[in-house]
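Ticket opened by: R.M.
Priority: normal
Category: complex prediction / small molecule

The reporter submitted a protein together with iron/sulfur cluster and asked that the result be attached to this ticket for the collaborator who will pick it up next week. Submitted input follows.
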Amino acid sequence: MKFLEEYRDYGAVRQMAQAIRRCTTRPWTLMEVCGGQTHTIVKTGLQDLMPEEITLVHGPGCPVCVTPLEMIDRAVAIAQRSEVILCSFGDMLRVPGSTQSLFDAKAVGADVRIVYSPLDALQLARSNPQREVVFFAVGFETTAPANAMAVWKAARKGIPNFSMLVSHVLVPPAMEAILSSPDCRVQAFLAAGHVCMVMGFEEYLPISRKYRVPIVVTGFEPLDLLEGVQMVVAQLESGRADVENQYARAVRRSGNRPAQERIAEVFEVTRRAWRGIGEIPSSGLRLREAYRRFDAESRFAVEIRHVEESNECIAGLVLQGLRKPYECPAFGTRCTPDTPLGAPMVSSEGACAAYFHFGRRKEDGNPIVPSATAGH
Ligand code: SF4
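Result attached by the on-call engineer:
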């Protein structure tokens, strides 16, 4: 398949790994901020191809993982109302809330449905005018255009029984939060190609300048990721800090203007809490006043208690690149994809799930996947 197989070519991958070795002279810690990229790195063993000076850490790039506990509880409480059909993407249903996941709520009678697009939820609202259809909208800038389009269409077509529970997050403020932390060990970023397809990469320029950090917009195949690493390492080794585009076959500097315009018409920037990290200013989206009547949070007044996360789960440290999943004491024992304690073990994009399914070996040579579960 064009633009796929050539980016998985083993010979080309090895050559690029050698190019990285040739240009690396010092230790560098690099972070990708995309769950899809994390999975490619872990699944294909790219870390093993790196020189030992390069450490890849995995950022808060899985939308399911960063959706706050309170928002899951709110979705569950709304789903429990008899008039509601609550729709979301499949991964969201398994994420543990403080007492229940959406799947648990479904098991005891809530009408919770998996959809593949917010437009499917809109269609459901049209065919069930006697019910309230709520779409649980999570994700980064990548899913925002389709969600904005669904609300815009609901307004244009006058579909009053459709609403959206919005928990959108934005990548650049999260990168800034990581860089401003006194514990930060990240020296360069691989920016997510699909986010930049929508938003372009001009908003990364001030971050790169302010924190003197190289940022390379990177694709998702093994060769993309290695080339992204080679580009950031070349910058680091030469003392440069620029924004560069490895994924030029898909990303333009200014991104997709019509998609940005649709997002800006329907949503406005707001502060948002990130699960495991905390509140980050200007890091989320909410519906603008003109579309607020489609806001499920205002439409359904449900009371949510603030609940502390399990102190066993170190997802916040994993998502900030301060720990690897296998450094969590619960990894692969008390926390598995069948019995997740935290969201990164649930989602197909979560770092803990990636290490569980495709895990490599720890530095001491012991498997990071317990042998009893290694067949998963
Ligand atoms: S392994 Fe489980 S408990 Fe540990 S950080 Fe990951 S999700 Fe949390």
